Amino acid sequence: MEIRPYETSDADEFWELKRAFELGLGAGTGGDDKAEVYEGKLTEEYRERYLDWVERCVGDDERCVTVADAGDGLAGYVFVLPEELAFIWDAAVLNEIYVRPAHRGTGVADELMDAAVSLAADQTLPLDRLVLDVDRENDRAGAFYERHGFEHWGEMVAKKL
């Protein structure tokens, strides 16, 4: 397994991972309408805008999007916001981490998290933290983050617009 920076040539396969990540967010927590909302946003226009944003972020720091390359395809990715965008929370922001189900439990997620923590440690920000948003009903993700030393630090709330 090679842990390496995202490349533009990864775009199609990377989008498959992003799509699976989004569909996973909508499944199993938050009710049926959450799944519909997440699936409904995955349009071609969203794909193009998202991949453009990825390119801008990796243009700031190529380590912002790191992929796990299994040789026969991408097994997963981690996306940490570039330092200039991390001021949204005044801390390093782990935007997304996803590993294909077939590669879960193999250490790939740990390697991706190590890459994320390394990048976050190199960022110079007001708060010496790596933060993320996780659904408290997602026990598997919660256990993974806890194993990596994350702890609850406030709570995000949302209002429908």
From TrEMBL:
InterPro entries in the record: Acyl_CoA_acyltransferase, Bact_Acetyltransf, GNAT_dom
Keywords of this protein's UniProt record, alphabetized? Acyltransferase, Transferase
Native source organism of the sequence = Haladaptatus paucihalophilus DX253
Domain of life, source organism = Archaea
- Keyword Cell division listed? The answer is no
**Is Transmembrane among this UniProt entry's keywords?**
no
Every N-acetyltransferase domain range: 1-161
Task: List GO molecular-function terms, semicolon-separated.
Answer: acyltransferase activity, transferring groups other than amino-acyl groups
Its protein name is Acetyltransferase (GNAT) family protein
